[in-house]
Amino acid sequence: MNDPVNFSDIFSRSDLFVGIEAEKISDIFGFGSRAIYKSGATLFREGDPALKSYLVLKGRLKLSKLHEDGKEAIVRYINPGGLTAVVSVFKGKNYPVTAQAVGSSEVIGWDRETIMKLMAAYPQIAINSLRMVVERLDDIQRRYLELQTERVEQRIARSLLRMMKQSGRKIGEGVLIDFRLSRQDLADYAGTTLYTVSRTLSSWEKKGWITSGRKRIVVADPHALVAFTESG
After folding, report:
1. Max CA-CA distance within the chain?
2. Which CATH number fits domain 150-229: 1.10.3720.10, 1.10.10.10, 1.10.287.70, 3.40.50.920?
3. What residue spans define the domains of the chain?
4. Predicted structure pTM score
5. Mean pLDDT, rounded, for 6-18
6. Which long-range contacts (CB under 8 A, 24 or more apart) does 145-154 make?
7. pLDDT tens across 115-157, in order?
8. 20 to 30 A from 118, CA-CA: which of 6, 67, 108, 201?
9. What is the pLDDT of residues 111-125, one digit of tens each?
């Protein structure tokens, strides 16, 4: 049986609701439709008409794009409290990415007409949505620059640090990236190959920087990875 969603926690941690009174939470969530997706299930596919925006309540979503040769590139992960597919606000647009559930995930979705009504009733939602879109564009630009200028091992380190910052949980060994993350997923996110990721992680395990298991990575020495990203 799934644990109930703590809506107050989602409300407080989501950038979408910054500046909005907490007592409005039930009204805003009441306009949406909730759905639960099994791990690996697809919410929408790249190129499909953009019909809804989604807020993650539990679990997380993996957003990816396909290259012409069919290779997947992971664009980002959306954690609880995160919003995706704001493009649905604009009529006639298609989803630019594919969204899949990572672990059992629960979301709330608003269609275009509803999200437009919410933005009219709560202008701060429109402002916050725009801010989130700009921040993600900045992130994409930074990652593109890294892809062009940094060694692949530095990109892998930065990828782990990003995931640690967004989804890290402190445990005895260090900071656990708190979702199932395969080496192939990390390769798709960092823009490299499975062989390179496996070789790099094995080297870092010997140095004591990380520990890893089946789809599980713990950053044991974050400072070492930070220093490595800043090395020439």
Report:
1. 55
2. 1.10.10.10
3. 7-147, 150-229
4. 0.85
5. 83
6. 147/191, 150/229, 152/190, 152/191, 152/192, 152/196, 152/200, 153/196, 153/200, 153/228, 154/228, 154/229, 154/231
7. 999 999 999 999 999 999 999 899 889 888 888 889 999 999 9
8. 6
9. 999 999 999 999 999
